Amino acid sequence: MKNAFYAQSGGVTAVINASACGVIETARKHKGKIGKVLAGRNGIIGALTEDLIDTSKESAKAIAGLRHTPAGAFGSCRYKLKSIEEHKAQYERLIEVFKAHDIGYFFYNGGGDSADTCLKVSRLSEQMGYPIIAVHVPKTVDNDLPVTDNCPGFGSVAKYIAVSTREATLDVASMAKTSTKVFVIEVMGRHAGWIAAAGALASDKDLDLPVVVLFPEIAFDRAKFLARVDATVKKFGYCTVVVSEGVKGPDGRFLSDQGVRDAFGHAQLGGVAPVIAGLVKSELNLKYHWAVADYLQRAARHVASKTDVAQAYATGKAAVEVALKGRNSVMPAIKRVSNRPYKWKVEIAELKDVANKEKFMPRNFISADGFGITEKCRQYLTPLIQGEDYPPYKNGLPQYVRLKNVGVKKKLGEFKV
Amino acid sequence: MKNAFYAQSGGVTAVINASACGVIETARKHKGKIGKVLAGRNGIIGALTEDLIDTSKESAKAIAGLRHTPAGAFGSCRYKLKSIEEHKAQYERLIEVFKAHDIGYFFYNGGGDSADTCLKVSRLSEQMGYPIIAVHVPKTVDNDLPVTDNCPGFGSVAKYIAVSTREATLDVASMAKTSTKVFVIEVMGRHAGWIAAAGALASDKDLDLPVVVLFPEIAFDRAKFLARVDATVKKFGYCTVVVSEGVKGPDGRFLSDQGVRDAFGHAQLGGVAPVIAGLVKSELNLKYHWAVADYLQRAARHVASKTDVAQAYATGKAAVEVALKGRNSVMPAIKRVSNRPYKWKVEIAELKDVANKEKFMPRNFISADGFGITEKCRQYLTPLIQGEDYPPYKNGLPQYVRLKNVGVKKKLGEFKV
What we know:
2 copies of one chain form a homodimer. By secondary structure, the first copy, chain A, is α/β, with parallel strands linked by helices.
């Protein structure tokens, strides 16, 4: 009976801990078949430096609390393993740590880069003779993993952006007569426009709101954009622009990279929202306000999608179940069974089909003019934000869990990463 | 039996419509004593231009829905009346409109500037012989009105900032090992630091988080701030900075006003968050992320404070009740009866004591070092964010009400504002 290693990787989300909860609770249910779940402190770095957390020291209540706690309870990292050929010492170290702590299962919870790391670890058996079962648990607010219909983490950020865009657009509608006419909100998604697309959900049949979306998939056309904002403000009196941080100009450069210097000569560390707002002001002379949601959007567990929480938990649970069946180098994926009513199930994808591939918005999800979403896209997105899953509150604030994170006694020498 | 005029003024909030709901529902309960509630389209401008909305055309369900709908359902405006001496024509026009529509009650829902406008209107009886009862309904996210213990609108933005700061700080805690170490969030409050103070609530006895607050009441001391961030990151590994948009340097200039120009030579329309983030990067070489909450914070009805919603409704209700008792030139104010348990009631304040005064954070609410709040401040703030009051959801989104806003037939000639 082997122990399991679990770690969180890359940018965290509102529901990555729900996946951790699924992994740990499911492992605890199979006590005869799987030992302790040892978590990497700060992702794979915890494995390399033998900085392991003994999750068996946490109460059932604390682990259950992970389901409603955002961010990464064990710490995450941005660290990509090179190939076994390029950096054999790291893999030898991993095997050394796995051996020392009797680890036979490797669960890695992350996005595209993490799927690649997990794939490399899954090959330790064949390439270096160490028997390990490596399963990737999908997570990314960017929703850019292939094979899976959607990624845990995305539904909640999509809900946050849709709700916030609806609220702020009602705000600007109130102010437009004598004050702000254009509101700009910058959202995440450097390469794929899924999160930006969610902004368009703010407007629907029940509440028609003027929302213009700028996708990273569509090269920014200054004249066309200004004409669109101008026409929208003339029609509605106001307008909201949802802009992806990854929007690029026709020259392929990020719009946020304007070569601006501050008073001290440092590069201006701006987002794209102030650039868009500045354009609206200078070219159309319209009063604006702008917001940059940044971490607020991906940490917003208080307005998480119930569907997303359920899927995050389910993929964590399925990871353990499939590992116990001996499947290596796989990832539980979400399969959409039907749209209305929305039904989904977990299927098992091969990791080689997932790693190092990005899924962008298909062109037929973006409206012909490039500033909105199609009905097809709306049908895809809408189910993912369904349901509310509020955390418990105490004293007016969500009661998020902080684990004890007791370290496992080290048995090996130091290793520098 | 006279009709009533109601209007919304200044920046809107998550709960100003709850006050409108209180006004209209209460007026409807006193049908024999008060006529229709006619709302100004876009605030006082609607009165001047005779652009009135007949709220009697709205169903009871739609009016009830205002209680959970953010922003200003009738439109707001930023428009301050001059004195009667300076701009007599405007007051004559107001009287003309009031006469034409048989208006005997004037309810004005706003902040400090609006209290001033309401005070001027309340003097129409004595100064121009038109009998009117003018009552101000308090509203401001800035919480800077005097006399009242707190302002409807503030509790909800405080809750939003406290919750968001808690969530984003857990996020940066997860990332700090290999990535972001300092998260900066910019909040509203150009003169008073009440909203910034709410960021400090993110950390409490249950969840100790490193939060550094920059108040507009405390002149920014660059060296002291950097030393504080440096020490905090050394101790915790990460840090969140909550910065008020109104923070000024020792020279009295807004920190956000760095004289920065963009690539086209336009003034950079930046917030203060990127300035603070830039400082952290250039002087401490720490990786940062920053967010600007802007309208998202004051429109965030999805995470409103139940206490705030109740107080917004109660002040609207009390405004009508006190008007029916013949009291002119007053404002329903919140009186704190006790802290533990928190009890409050509505009292009636004289408008002359409210108008044109701002309430700043008392120095004993700010910690000695200037970067946090005192226990006294925490005791003041905590009750105001108590309770959740979720809007109904449909299709994954809050079902916010949009009124029909049927115009009243005009009887007078045009008037330019």
